Amino acid sequence: MSQFKIGDTVARKSYNYDVLFKITAIRGDMVDLIGMTVRIIADAPIYDLKYINKEEATRMLNINDKKFDERLSRTYSGIKSRFNLRGHTLNNSYINDQIPIYTREEIYKKPGVVLHIDGDMDYARKCKDVYKKMGITAHVYNISEQEQPRHVYNLLTKIRPNILVLTGHDAFIRKRSDMYNIDNYKNSRYFVESVLEARRYEHSLDNLVIFAGACQSYYEAIISAGANFASAPKRVLIDMLDPIIVAQTVALTPVDRFAPLASIINNTREGLKGIGGVQTRGQYREGIPGL
Questions:
Q1: Is residue 173 a contact partner of residue 186, using CB atoms and an 8 Å limit?
Q2: How far apart are CA 57 and CA 291, in angstroms?
Q3: Which pTM was predicted?
Q4: Structural contact between residues 270 and 238, judged by C-beta atoms closer than 8 angstroms
Q5: pLDDT-based confidence at 84, cuts 50/70/90?
Q6: How confident is the model at residue 3 (pLDDT cuts 50, 70, 90)?
Q7: In the predicted model, is pLDDT for residue 95 greater than 60?
Q8: Using only C-alpha atoms, what is the Rg of the chain?
Q9: pLDDT over 80 (residue 107)
Q10: 3-state secondary structure the chain
Q11: pLDDT for res 99
Q12: What is the rounded distance in angstroms from the CA atom of residue 139 to the CA atom of residue 154?
């Protein structure tokens, strides 16, 4: 009988305990795993697992949270510096002989609105808290990857967001070797189908900005389906909150500017190996007078 139980926190010996996992199922001598800080699903033999007690897990999770907070802060500071978001200075295009220069209290500011669909309930809850902390309006739903294609169109019609995030967990089945066969991925097919449904709702990459994917996802297929951003070009792991780095930057980039691709990518866990994308306009708008 296994010494482990569903819900236990573990790490894999063969990967030098690099990722914390939660056990989701036990099948004889094998267990199914889900990443606690990265968007990966996996399985492993019981002999390859090490139990991680609550104190050690909390310590490791706190380290991960600190690293993410640093990247999130760095991302926002870069946006603030690049676009003067809190300088409260209107762009010259707003000012002419007929329009007075308004005070900062009279400027209306509207970041992009996010619809975030996440296959992981705990991740969805954490993402919702982070969006709130950033002051970005986000409608967050926990829907399994397999069910996302069935729900995304109706949710888009209901929410009418500027930005769509489709994520959860994924994995490339390495023993099958062919990285250009979508059948060799756990959930990439569903991300592709969801992007196609979203583009049926809105075909313009400027009117609806889409991020889709998770760990090791089939990047080329997701981008070809119509996503602005996707994971993972080099089939690596991505952080639980990497999709928020993308959504935050697009939501706070002025609509007359392109979101800074290099800044987005450099502030994610694995950089260009983990996240890629195409030129995309921001979704932040200012207006005068304020509301």
A1: yes
A2: 46
A3: 0.86
A4: yes
A5: low
A6: confident
A7: no
A8: 20
A9: no
A10: CCCCCCCCEEEEHHHCCCCCEEEEEEECCEEEEEECCECEEEEEEHHHEEECCHHHHHHHHHHHHHHHHHHHHHHHHHHHHHHCCCCCCCCHHHCECCECCCCHHHCEEECCCEEEEECCHHHHHHHHHHHHHHCCCEEEEECCCCCHHHHHHHHHHHHCCCEEEEECCECECHHHCCCCCHHHECCHHHHHHHHHHHHHHCCCCCCCEEEECCCCCCHHHHHHHCCCEECCCCCCCCECCHHHHHHHHHHHCECCCECCHHHHHHCCCCHHHCCEECCCECCEEEECCCC
A11: 40
A12: 13
d(CA 104, CA 288): 10
Over range 41-45, report the average pLDDT.
93
What pLDDT score does 98 carry? 43
The residues, any chain, with a CB within 8 Å of residue 213's CB and separated by 6 or more, are 166, 167, 170, 188, 191, 219, 222, 227, 230, 231, 232, 238
Sole residue written with tokens 């969805």: 124
Q: Give the span between the Cα atoms of 251 and 255, in whole angstroms.
A: 9
Structural contact between residues 101 and 277, judged by C-beta atoms closer than 8 angstroms: no
Q: What is the mean pLDDT of residues 93-102?
A: 39
pLDDT at position 258 is: 95
Closest to 170 measured CA to CA, from 121, 123, 228, 235: 235
The Cα angle at residue 155 between residues 152 and 158, in degrees rounded to 5: 155
93 φ, ψ (degrees, to nearest 5):
-65, -20
pLDDT given for residue 134 in this prediction: 87
Residue range 151-159: mean pLDDT, rounded: 98
pLDDT band at residue 65 under the 50/70/90 scheme:
confident
Residue with tokens 């500017």: 257
